[in-house]
Amino acid sequence: MSTTASTTASTDVSTRPVDPAYVTARPVNPAGLPTAYSHGGRLTPEGSSVDPILVEIVQGTLASVEMEVETAIGRTSRSPMIRDAHDFRAGIHDRQLRKLTGRSYSALVHPIVRDFPLEEMREGDVFFHNDVYESEGGIGHLPDLCVTVPVFHEGEVVAFVQAFGHHDDIGGACPGSMPSGATTVYEEGLAVPPIKLWDAGVPNKAALRIMTRNSRMPDSLAADLDAECSACLMGARRLSELFDRYGRQAIETSFDAILDATTETYRREILSKIPDGTYVWEDYAEHDGVDEPQLHTQRITLTKVSDAPADPENGRPAGPRLIIDFTGTSAQAKGPINHCGDYVGGNFLKKWLAPILRNLADTPERMAELDVNEGIVPLIEMRFPEKGTLLTPIHPGPTNARTFVILRLLGVLAGVVAKAVDGKMPADQETIRYTGVYGKDLEGNDYLMREVLGGGSGGRYYADGEDTIHVVPDSRNLPTEFTESRFPFIVERLGLAVDSGGAGEFRGGLGYEKHIRMLKDAHFMSIADRSILACWGVRGGKAGAPFQVVIDPGGPEEREVDALADDEVVRAGQVVRIRTTGGGGWGDPLARDPELVVRDVVWGKVSAEAALRDYGVVLTGSRDGDDLGFDAAATQSERAGRAAWSKDDDAFFDRGPGYAALAGGATSAEVDRV
Fold first, then answer.
1. CA distance linking residue 211 with residue 221, whole number of Å
2. CB neighbours of 396 closer than 8 A, spacing ≥ 6?
3. How many CA atoms lie within 13 A of 362 on its CB side?
4. Where do the Hydantoinase B/oxoprolinase domain residues begin and end (predicted)?
5. Dihedral pair phi/psi, residue 292, rounded to 5°
6. Is 127 helix (H, G, I), strand (E, B) or coil?
7. 542-559 pLDDT per residue, tens
């Protein structure tokens, strides 16, 4: 691992030691800034003694500080997206840029240290960036604004506190800064490379003015940034106190021990569950906002090796290793669904994808205990195709809807692992999409309401999927009481979308159904996928229902809206009906306990028609009469007349009817069989 070296924008990069893991990422920095820096190495010699009680204290303190930072942001921010939807994250990193906390994902410190040497940082500094192509893969689209604060002990940088979140507007071609038809990043808003937003405690008012001047929501943007900067500065003070209390040597030894424990836990409890071998699977985004709908492929070739040799140059120990190869991923899209994933050896993507592996834990309770921090990075090797693909886009390719790629990759990894472990992974989910309305409120002022709505998670080999979950931890839909008091519409319904979960022995979770009646003319917007394709079922389970938006349902102007829309007109008095995706089912629906089907009908999650159609359950009585049941003999006869799912004869995955529409009539892909 290279040693720390000072650098500025004018430094001769050829004279600096280069980290091999970074070189293999083939970085492209359009600004010509230095792209070599020290990162990822240990802080103390391997085998250093450590007090296990102190490690617990340090780990608990890190989690507490992270939570305190997020709580402060939530209480002092102003925009609905940050304050109410909680679409933001905090993270704590050591001076080798390793993520120490594991409650959720976070951005990277790498671009800050790349451009600002540690030895030139001062207490009270706050760094800012949102430039996708200069974020080293940590920022996916321009509305994600990131602040980073160095932590000091005895005058030296010892750690970093960072926060980033999805903000309402940073300029660009449409309100919300996510134009669905963008063909370059320049249409998506103001891109800010790493800058010093606060200098030794003094805010850079000129930089803030430039950013707010480019935003349609300048007041909330300024307030949110102030909240994030102040919260991270507070977090930095808390960590400084930890170093003061126990000393740098003890704390850094504890940092190494925390990450070592994660590495060993995943090696022993997770990677050991995947048989050695090579497995291939792929899934697709369905549209990019520019070209006609088509299959935009994301492919993973997963290789599990139990006895990989040590790779000290890249920080990989000997032993079990996962090799994730993205070769076969489609070319860079014209529209904004690209994601810059190939920087720093895929460091961000490793931590983004690793939570999927937790599903291999022995129990759901154990799964919930496993954090994802930098300790998983040495166990995963990523191999990227050449520049010019969905995961290796070339500047200035657009990226605002990159969720279509990074969310799909979660499912691709789950699917390829499912092939390796005979399906003992959850079926698919699509738990985030952006919807919203904008226009003039009742007083004639401009407004923008953006919401991140979840969907159902996939059925599991031991349980049904969960209803209406969100991929961002602690995030949620906007409260009805808040939106109705602030925006010119009424929420007439917010509930579960009946029959949206994929049928299975274990049913997929349900998505939302939300009805919004506009009080004034407005414009509806949507950034969503899975409106043609569906969340796949596994091992005989059926796909869930896709995303759908209908304006004026049952009225004279009823029409379905494309899932990528910037300015669909909605008249005063009309209703917007939003139905989000249901999770895929797990296992043959004919194997589901009929009592559970009856329960689901009573609960309103499954219709009486679907009970017979999807599960072969013949109901008796009625839900209204409070005597709903099933006829056991008739149900047995009904099921006996249907073909049961067969691993030998049928596809392992069910992609739903929309797949055939984009695949030339094919009902499954070649990789869907085992």
1. 8
2. 133, 184, 185, 186
3. 5
4. 51-589
5. -65, 155
6. strand
7. 999 999 999 999 999 999
